[in-house]
Specification:
Layout: H1 5-17, H2 23-31, H3 37-46, H4 49-63, E1 68-69, E2 73-74, H5 76-87, H6 92-101, E3 104-105, H7 113-116, H8 122-134, H9 153-160, E4 166-169, H10 174-180, H11 187-198, E5 200-203, H12 249-258, H13 263-278, H14 298-310, H15 315-323, E6 350-351, H16 354-366, H17 378-382, H18 401-410, H19 425-428, H20 430-433, H21 458-461, H22 479-487, H23 489-497, H24 499-505, H25 510-522, H26 528-539, H27 544-552, H28 555-558, E7 559-560
Antiparallel strand pairs: 1-2, 3-5, 4-5, 6-7
Helix pairs in contact: 1-3, 3-15, 4-5, 6-12, 8-9, 10-11, 13-14, 13-15, 16-23, 22-23, 23-24, 23-27, 24-25, 25-26, 25-27
């Protein structure tokens, strides 16, 4: 049966902007008597700042977005770039193309961070790229022919060769920093200064891909140069790209991968978005589309893949169409018995993600202004970019010492001098503007906090990914999350000094107070028995904060209906 308006509003807020609705937002929806009010709400949410935050969290899990990459340093320019693409609603094919073809310094071009992420492991980088964007499970083909799919080791190396002339320069900046350091600037100062400049993606004509020493098949010899060739999934056979300019190979690869003619590219992102909205993909897992016929409903997968092409990879428009379907607007279903396939009578009953839970609790603490509170640390990196060319060689950089030192002095506050003792914060100013991990200053949406948060933070305890593996976020729940919900710092603040408790206390009588808590926490009015139980609790000496605590720890709060 169709979902009720009460359940629909809460569901669509969580699915589109990643948080529950406020009491005011609920009131606005129910005050709208137009027949298309659901469609109007969907349109409004898709265009809101909250949608950008929610999509950043979703892509952060998929793309393994972190504040710091090993020996690269800060990647804030990537965060800002990705959020800008979401704000401007860049088509998915263009966004992915830009990440795959990005060149230059990390401090100037945030998109380079995607390739720099696994720069020390180029074969793993290709494997992650094919798995994430095409649902091609190719990891084992790095070492041998795939035992189940049609991938061969030769196929894998022919694909890897598109990146063969690309230098992913993840320089260990500690060594050039040692070369440059003197009494003016410490090693830590210079590591921070060099990282946005020395971490870069460039063309290198001296590089190419060769078959590995342990290559054991008859179709090539170890050490042979690999000729790039695309993989096809249809009947058409692709010819090797002989004679092509090495400088353009990465662009050829990106054009092939993101083409509407590539059946896997549209299918992969459509399948992922379907899972985001329904709780389960048409083809599970989303990282393995090698046998499309194994999908729960192959025809549905073909349909949503074509829809993605029809909307020109506009993720917002794709979601708008799916959210307006009768299927999405049905009541939730429970997971079918093991061995039975889910046929999508409606979305699956599922727990909120860690980010949805956190953002909803922060909303109750601070109100809807949280959608407007944004952090952008990219300018702190961009100001460190050298306005001149310099030697990237660890030893050769010595000849650029004075240029670098003169530039470094311009970054000091008020033209002051460095004593050579300050740490990494000398140039980044982290000590003044660093986001705090505890207390009111940390009550920002998950998208605006460090990526990811430390293991002890509520977000991680509740299942936020460590961002080491694609799609590693968890909604399983557990004892640690339950304890954090019952006794954590945020819950304690919610019970005592939150906006929702203050608003409830301003109501005229207990019935109105209880009604407000139910609407803000559960997005519905209390039933008669709910009101009676809460009044009895208040009369026994409990406080409004205790009622809020009970609602937040209920299954009704934690699950999306």
């Amino acid at each position: 049966p169709p979902v009720s308006d009460i359940q629909f509003v809460r569901r669509v807020y969580l699915d589109v902007i990643g948080r529950i609705p406020t009491d005011k937002e609920l009131g606005e929806f129910f005050a709208d008597n137009r027949r298309d009010r659901r469609a109007r709400l969907i349109d409004k949410l898709l265009e809101s700042p909250g949608h950008e935050s929610h999509m950043f969290n979703w892509l952060g899990d998929m793309l393994r977005v972190k504040d710091d990459y090993y020996r690269i340093g800060k990647t804030w320019t990537f965060h800002t770039w990705l959020k800008l693409q979401l704000r401007e609603n860049r088509p998915w094919d263009e966004l992915v193309y830009d990440m795959l073809t990005a060149e230059g310094r990390l401090g100037e071009n945030g998109a380079t961070a995607y390739l720099l992420r696994d720069a020390s492991m180029p074969l793993d980088s290709l494997s992650n790229t094919l798995t994430t964007f095409l649902g091609a499970n190719v990891a084992c083909a790095q070492c041998h022919d795939h035992p189940f799919a049609e991938w061969t080791q030769r196929d894998f190396y022919e694909m890897a060769s598109f990146f063969g002339s690309t230098a992913f320069e993840r320089v260990d900046t500690r060594k050039p920093a040692i070369t440059l350091r003197d009494k003016r600037f410490s090693k830590a100062n210079l590591v921070t200064l060099l990282q946005p400049n020395m971490e870069r993606v460039v063309f290198d004509s001296q590089r190419s891909t060769v078959f590995p020493e342990d290559y054991a098949y008859d179709d090539a010899k170890p050490g042979d140069k690999v000729i790039p060739r695309f993989i096809t999934w249809g009947d058409e056979k692709e010819t090797p790209l002989t004679g092509k300019r090495p400088q353009r190979l990465r662009k050829y690869f990106a054009e092939w991968m993101t083409s509407a003619e590539n059946p896997r590219f549209a299918a992969a992102i459509a399948n992922r978005l379907w899972k985001k909205l329904f709780g389960v993909a048409v083809k599970e897992p989303v990282t393995d589309l090698d046998v499309l016929g194994d999908a729960t409903n192959p025809e549905l997968l073909r349909l949503i893949s074509q829809l993605m092409k029809d909307v020109d990879f506009d993720l917002r428009e794709f979601q708008r169409i799916v959210l307006n379907t009768k299927t999405y607007q049905q009541q939730v279903s429970v997971t079918p018995p093991e061995g039975e396939e889910f046929r999508f009578p409606g979305p699956l009953l599922r727990r909120m993600t860690a980010e949805q839970t956190w953002d909803s609790m922060v909303l109750l603490l601070r109100g809807p202004k949280i959608d407007q509170l944004k952090t952008d640390h990219a300018p702190r990196m961009q100001r460190l970019v050298f306005p001149f060319e310099f030697t990237h060689d660890r030893k050769g950089i010595e000849k650029d010492r004075e240029k670098i030192m003169e530039f470094a002095k311009t970054l000091l506050p008020d033209g002051g001098a460095s004593d050579g003792k300050s740490g990494r914060s000398l140039f980044l100013g982290a000590s003044k503007r660093k986001v705090k991990l505890r207390g009111e200053d940390s009550w920002l949406r998950a998208s605006e906090l460090p990526q990811p948060m430390p293991p002890t933070h509520f977000l991680r305890v509740a299942g936020q990914s460590a961002r080491e593996i694609t799609d590693d976020g968890s909604t399983e729940g557990g004892i640690a999350e339950s304890l954090a919900m019952m006794n954590g710092e945020v819950t304690e603040s919610l019970m005592t000094s939150s906006l929702v408790i203050e608003a409830a206390r301003r109501k005229n009588n207990p019935v109105e107070q209880i009604a407000l808590l139910y609407r803000t926490c559960l997005s519905r009015p209390p039933r008669e028995r709910d009101t009676k139980q809460c009044i009895a609790a208040l009369q026994s000496g409990l406080d409004l904060g205790d009622i809020a605590w009970a609602l937040l720890n209920s299954r009704e709060f934690m699950f999306i209906q």
